[in-house]
Amino acid sequence: MQMTMRWFGDQYDTVKLWQIRQVPGVTGVISTLYGSVPGEVWQLRDILALKSEIEAAGLSLSGIESLNVHDSIKAGLSDRDVYIDNYIESLKNIGEAGLHMVCYNFMPVFDWTRSELARVRPDGSTVFAYNQEAVDALVPEEMFDRVNSGADGILMPGWEPERMAHVKELFEIYRDVDEEKLFDNLKYFLERIMPVCNEYDIKMAIHPDDPAWSVFGLPRIITNKANILRMTGMVDDVHNGVTFCAGSYGTNPENDLPDMIRSLKGRIHFAHVRNLKFNSPGDFEESAHLSSDGSFDMYEIMLALYDIGFDGPIRPDHGRMIWGEKAMPGYGLYDRALGVAYLNGLWEAIQKTHG
Ligand code: CS2
Ligand code: MN
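Above: the input record for the complex with manganese (II) ion. Below: its predicted structure, written as tokens.
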């Protein structure tokens, strides 16, 4: 595996590349053209500029998270081919820049959903939390306001104002899209992009829906083992793979994470490893990475990745806000660095005992 951290670019991130460079074991970052909107073509010069900036700091650009998919593609609208052509153009440029992993998601309208961005834990740290009743009591617009007001004016990934300015229209286009239709639309998209992925050896890594069930009545499909195997099987190409995000699949306690990892051998191209603490069936919070602080067995998750020979980029995903740090919620330096150290420790022990 290659240990990485997500970095949003100099203009948007409170964490600096030189700080990431000092986290032991981190050799790369996962980044994106953060100012771009879904549907736009990524220009080669912009990708190369991002890459050189990262390399100048002594790190590699280990992959893209995310190259977002336009809602016309997800909803299967008549203009989807225009946006798929643009996506293919962006992939070509990503390939030309020598990059080989692209994370994306196929969630209608919203990216991840949480009801709180800064729930206080007993140790005084603040974390993302989800409470089903609180989410059920909101209309989508309120959800958007809540995410943005809780972020101290920091732009949250997946909740970009451009997209959210049209929430009502976006909901409208999904009126007739059920899970089956969404699967069809994903298949159509994947079949069209696979040739360029093969040409440049770009591994597509779909991010699971977070939480792993329908919110606000929108269909969601990347939620469990059966669905993800259906997805990898319906376009049976190694370049059609997944981001194994423990914190997202793990929102549903029925998902057996190590078993899911083992069933996806050869198709996991990126891993997000973090822990959650369940307080009751409809309520969880994002605890520290340490197994004993949350509900997952992190050793078993890392062991499963080791067993399948996972060799792609991995990152600690979200962290708690600790030590008074002011940063984008979930993406501060300190707790993610602790997460890295812990995951690296587990990995070293696994290698030595299972090597
Ligand atoms: C990420 C997702 O911050 C996060 O929770 O794991 O937003 C992820 O980047 C996207 O879903 C990928 O498209
Ligand atoms: Mn994730």
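Notes for the reader.
The chain has a mean pLDDT of 94.
The chain has one domain: 2-354.
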